[in-house]
Amino acid sequence: MESFSLILAIVVVTALAFDFTNGFHDTANAMATTISTGAMRPKVAVAMSAVLNLVGAFLSVEVANTISKGLVDEAGIRPEVIFAALVGAILWNLLTWLVGLPSSSSHALMGGLIGATIASAGVGAVHGDVLVTKVLIPAIAAPLVAGIAAMLATRLTYSLGKKADGEASRKGYRAGQIASAGLVSLAHGTNDAQKTMGVITLALVAGGAVAPDSDPPMWVILSAGLAIALGTYLGGWRIIRTMGKGLTDLQPQQGFAAQTSAATVILASSHLGFSLSTTHSVSGAVMGAGLGRKGGVVRWSTATRMFVAWGLTLPAAALVGALAEYVTGFGDWGTAVVAVFLVASSAVIWKLSRREVVDHTNVNDTGEAEPAGVVTAAMAAVTPPPAAGAVTEEPVPDFPAQATSERTPSTTTTV
After folding, report:
1. CA triplet 98, 102, 103: central angle to 5 degrees?
2. What is the DSSP string of 380-399?
3. In principle, which of 33, 129, 224, 306 could form an S-S bond with 196, CB 3.0–4.6 Å?
């Protein structure tokens, strides 16, 4: 085997940087609903999510193998190709984080890898059957399945809770939310941390550091788990705000139903080796839970922007990855140019984010209300309010700001 070269070291560091952005970009998947309903304090929520992401990274390597052995032809890949792919994925993650849109880190990585591979070795180096069956089909099916499951679970939850004691029910659903949020965090670590493991393993194979068809080495698993956990702890507050308050107004019953449904879908896909987007699953579940409560509505203007971002993720990351691969083809100076461009672009995006700081102190502030969309207004007009006997959310002393919003029915909220 060849020695661990400089370019290989650069690829590993860049992959871990992507894993870090994946962590703070996708924190909202696990904790947005828990934070928005006041079930947990923001900083405590992201700390718990970080620990469980780290644990989840050690539970499976099926998704990692899908990426390192199935999506592209290992024989046509150089370490520079992996580096170019990661550049496309990181920049897309940072751009969507800046505007607060919950797009898929997974698809950004897939897109960057596909674009860079095509630029380097041609279309034939991409395994189309794997792309369709384990990436594209799950991308469409996951939000639909999670959304329908969450909507049905929400309706069942409210139906069963009509005669329940209000205080006991409130405490029970809060506990359920915390447990289900932990399950989503565990599932996220199991699914998303593996993607970085797969990319690093693919780079190690391409650089001759490990044998072809190898599983991720233990140091790869550990470093990927730590990187995603650190990113999760810092919290992607902009996306947490969108997921928790921007799509719909959730009560603990809905939050519990959404997170449980999403976690089930994510864990099942991890077991089957599907490179599933946790963002798609959780977003679909949140919207389904929003529609599952009588009087609940979805802010379709926000959802539409999110859908557009989903559709652009693969091609946009692929385009950047292909361009980066073209530049790295000029040799070491080309790789250096791409690296400088990545660092400079990341710095500019961070600087722009400082113009309006979003953190744990204002993550539940929704800001100025958006004008109501046609679908939202129509649903609000024809859907009756929650039944009188249904369990309603009580104010929580520790969260005075949330308490006011939780007592306000979503049908009266202008969106």
Report:
1. 95
2. HHHSPPPPTTS--PPP-TT-
3. 224
> Which CA distances in Å does 2 have to 9, 72, 206, 223?
13, 22, 10, 22
Please state, in angstroms and rounded to a whole number, the distance separating the CA atoms of residues 353 and 93: 13
Residue closest to 188 by CA, chosen among 102, 273, 279, 314? 279
pLDDT of residue 374: 41
Length of the chain: 415
Residue pLDDT, tens place only, 338-365: 999 999 999 999 999 888 888 878 777 7
Q: What is the DSSP track for 193-244?
A: HHHHHHHHHHHHHHTTSS-TTPPPPHHHHHHHHHHHHHHHHH--HHHHHIII
**Could you please report the per-residue DSSP string of 256-312?**
HHHHHHHHHHHHHHHHHT----HHHHHHHHHHHHHHHSTT----HHHHHHHHHHHHH
- Got the DSSP string for 55-103? HHTTS--HHHHIIIIIIB-GGG--HHHHHHHHHHHHHHHHHHHHTT---
The values of phi and psi at residue 72, to 5°, are: -130, 165
pLDDT tier at 410 (50, 70, 90 boundaries)? very low
Say which residue the tokens 């550091």 belong to.
Answer: 209
Domain ranges of the chain: 6-410
Task: Give per-residue pLDDT as tens, 222-237.
Answer: 998 899 999 888 867 8
Q: Which residues pair with 72 in a beta bridge?
A: 126
With residue 130 as reference, give the H or E element that holds it: helix 128-131
User: What predicted TM-score, i.e. pTM, was given to this entire model?
Assistant: 0.77
- Amino acid identity at 274: F
The identity of residue 273, as a single letter, is G
CA angle at residue 242 from 238 to 244, to 5 degrees?
A: 110
